Amino acid sequence: MLPKRVLFRLAAPCFYRQELWTAEGAALEPRYRLPHFAELEGQQGGAEVRAAWSEQGLTFSFFVAGKKQPPWCRTSRPDDSDGVQLWIDTRDVHNVHRASRFCHRFLFLPIGGGSRLDKPWGQWLPIHRAREQPGAIPPAQVKARSELTADGYLLEMFLGAGALTGFDPAEHPRLGFQYAVTDRELGEQTFAAGSPMPYQEDPSLWATLELVR
Question: Which domain holds residue 60?
């Protein structure tokens, strides 16, 4: 049976924030919370996700709770690790099934980086079957901060405009968007349709973020 989220063109507002990132991370207030569309399929709870934008780029916060074990993260096995993936299409095209050069995929882990493996880690990853890949990603344009909690973690990330080919909020104020929070204990949580739909490579399955000033 098809997930109910496939039956709707899902969209959510992403509100403007002048300052997206400081030495303390994003610190997004509750007004930046994104809706939990998985409730359409009877899924309750899950990670709380917040997002904001400015001309400088995008920032996100993921609050993961309900875990009984520490996150399992290995930079050598990123797809098997507990963490967050983001897919962003700066043209919000929903009538194609293969990614263009305006489509991006990023993966972030709350721990696993640094010499002591206790720092957050993030990188750009190619999208399977993409017709083209985006431009080179300057490392300084991707930032992450994490904080472990008693039953989970907070993971924040910043994607500078230089990391997003075609990012132009004035001309293109709608972004194709999908996230996936993967966890060995809690399972998978996605913004738009999740498994078994091939959302990892098909932009037509992503939802929309409307950049609201």
Answer: 11-20+33-69+80-193+202-212
Domain count, the chain: 1
Cα separation, 99 vs 88, whole angstroms = 10
CATH number at residue 208: 2.60.40.1190
Output the CA torsion sign for 194, 204, 78, 137.
negative
Under 8 Å between Cβ of 84 and 183: no
CA distance 51 to 126: 23
pLDDT digits (tens, 9 = 90+) for 88-122: 999 999 999 999 999 999 999 999 999 999 999 99
- Between CA 125 and CA 105 the distance in angstroms is 6
Return the sign of the alpha-carbon dihedral for residues 30, 19, 24, 78.
positive
Is-contact 52 58, C-beta < 8 A?
Answer: yes
Phi–psi pair at 139, nearest 5 degrees: -55, -35
